[in-house]
């Protein structure tokens, strides 16, 4: 078994996350071309229910396993590791079987009464096997994380993504003649195949690791029988239930958002097929584009928690401010060019990627809010590291409540429609980020240097002007080549300005280079 340092492990997951984000865009681009926005809507409407059920099945179990196995490993207690793993696997399989049965039982009622499009039932039922598969995979990932071996998780994630791409597009194309609902179900079946592939990789890695662990624990074989299972299960639940409850807030918010949006569009007099297509465009095309840079901000948040926790334990407020400022600055600097490109070139991006130029106004409306999304991750990580998860949860609840009220009020009006839901999402993101900011300010007195925001804002304006000028020259005659050239020239100028304005310095560059050594 290979054990990595914290930074190396974080960078392995970051690399896998970036690869998955890039690969994941292949079906995002190709699927709308095969089944259209309406088919994507049928596919997307199932996912909020999957998210809630997976939260109930897994929730905080992987985190609890990782934390507890790491403690047992540090003491050389290999017998304890076995008991933890078996208890977690038994609990997860039990919950997975129960939730899968509940999904099959209530699927007709959910798709008839909660969602406005009854065709969702086919992809809805097709996703059922994923509950148990993903649940089992999460236990294995928690096991390897506890052993500080991130390679199996990274390999399984990439394998799952590649298999999902190939099978989703293949099945969707094969089943399209039977109708849009069957094509969406085929795409969902591809997700099941991908998850099975990822689980197989984890099983192979686990068998190898178990052989090594058995050799190391052979001297402790007698003691392993003395450890009762009940305390293991009890502590596992005590560790995982609070995290599950916290994550359930986000999952339920996503579920209610999908239900309220679909119902509000129907109340606005929008036809079922058109409403499904609009929802598919928003959740399946526009928002994934906006979330591309979060692969980096998520990695920053993961790295920030232990760093700030250690500094807080030592009472080193200067280091807390330094680390938080670095993370905020890096999130701002890396997210800003994405915002410029998405806002400035929304129409050619939507036309070239999805062949749906009509959704460009949605991307243009939500693009500026991307900066708040990218800044939210380090702020939330800071609240967790400073032992204020309750504050972060309260802020999220407030934002979710405001968002749901606005969706009902705005999306149900014909003059707003889907843009009402978009406005509600924008308000939610800005509100939660602002609440997190004020919470951190009140807790440690942290303040961002406003001059950094002014400098980045000026660089964004200059970048936009240069990119727009380059695009208008139409040097190479093909839109996609001109778009790439405009984006590349704009980003290069932006980076030069960042260095010239001393937002990025040689210490930042040297720090990044050390991560990859």
What does this structure look like?
By secondary structure, the chain is an all-alpha fold. The longest helix is centred in the first third of the chain and has 39 residues, at 6-44. Helices cover 84% and strands 0% of the residues. Mean pLDDT is 81; it is low at 219-230.
The number of distinct β-strands equals: 0
Query: Element order, helices and strands?
Result: HHHHHHHHHHHHHHHHHHHH
How many strands, which pairing sense, and closed or not: the largest β-sheet? Answer: none
- Summarize the amount of helix as a percent range: over 70%
Class by alpha and beta content: mainly alpha
What is the general shape? Answer: globular
Please give the count of helices. Answer: 20
N→C terminal distance? 20 Å
Radius of gyration: 24 Å
Strand content: under 5%
pLDDT averaged over residues: 81
Low-confidence stretches: 219-230
């Amino acid at each position: 078994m290979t054990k990595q340092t914290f930074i190396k492990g974080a960078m392995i997951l970051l690399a896998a996350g970036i690869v998955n984000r890039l690969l994941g865009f292949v079906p995002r681009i190709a699927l709308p071309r095969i089944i259209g926005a309406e088919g994507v809507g049928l596919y997307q409407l199932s996912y909020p229910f999957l998210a809630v059920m997976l939260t109930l099945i897994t929730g905080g179990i992987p985190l609890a396993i990782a934390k507890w196995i790491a403690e047992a490993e540090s003491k050389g207690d290999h017998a304890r590791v076995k008991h933890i793993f078996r208890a977690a696997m038994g609990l997860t399989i039990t919950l997975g079987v129960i939730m899968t049965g509940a999904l099959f039982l209530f699927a007709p009622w959910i798709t008839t009464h909660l969602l406005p499009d009854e065709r969702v039932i086919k992809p809805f039922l097709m996703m059922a096997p994923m509950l148990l598969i993903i649940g089992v995979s999460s236990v294995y990932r928690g096991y390897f994380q506890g052993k500080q071996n991130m390679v199996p998780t990274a390999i399984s994630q990439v394998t799952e993504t590649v298999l999902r791409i190939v099978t989703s597009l293949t099945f969707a194309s094969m089943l399209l003649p039977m109708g849009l609902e069957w094509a969406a179900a085929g795409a969902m079946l591809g997700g099941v195949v991908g998850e099975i592939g990822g689980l197989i990789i984890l099983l192979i890695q686990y068998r190898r690791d178990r052989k090594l662990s058995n050799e190391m624990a052979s001297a402790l074989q007698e003691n392993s029988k003395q450890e009762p299972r009940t305390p293991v299960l009890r502590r596992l639940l005590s560790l995982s239930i609070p995290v599950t409850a916290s994550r359930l807030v986000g999952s339920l918010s996503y579920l209610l958002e999908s239900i309220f949006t679909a119902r509000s569009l129907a109340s606005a007099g929008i036809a079922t097929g058109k409403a499904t297509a609009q929802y598919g465009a928003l959740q399946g095309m526009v928002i994934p584009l906006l979330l591309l840079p979060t692969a980096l901000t998520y990695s920053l948040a993961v790295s920030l928690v232990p760093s700030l926790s250690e500094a807080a334990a030592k009472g080193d407020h200067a280091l807390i401010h330094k680390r938080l400022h670095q993370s905020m600055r890096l999130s701002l600097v890396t997210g800003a060019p994405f915002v410029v490109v998405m806002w400035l070139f929304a129409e050619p991006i939507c036309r070239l990627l999805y062949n749906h130029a009509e959704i460009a106004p949605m991307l243009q409306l939500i693009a500026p809010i991307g900066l708040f999304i990218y800044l939210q991750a380090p702020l939330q990580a800071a609240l967790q590291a400073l032992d204020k998860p309750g504050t972060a949860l309260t802020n999220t609840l407030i934002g979710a409540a405001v968002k749901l009220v606005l969706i009902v009020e705005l999306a149900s009006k014909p003059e707003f429609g889907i843009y009402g839901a978009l406005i509600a999402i924008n308000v939610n993101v800005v509100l939660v980020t602002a609440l997190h900011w004020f919470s951190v300010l009140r807790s440690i007195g942290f303040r961002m240097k406003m001059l950094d925001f002014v400098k980045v804002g000026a660089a964004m304006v200059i970048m936009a002007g240069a990119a727009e000028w380059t695009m208008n020259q139409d040097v190479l005659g093909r839109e996609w080549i001109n778009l790439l050239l405009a984006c590349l020239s704009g980003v290069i100028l932006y980076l030069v300005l960042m260095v010239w304005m001393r937002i990025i310095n040689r210490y930042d560059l040297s720090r990044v280079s050390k991560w990859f050594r």
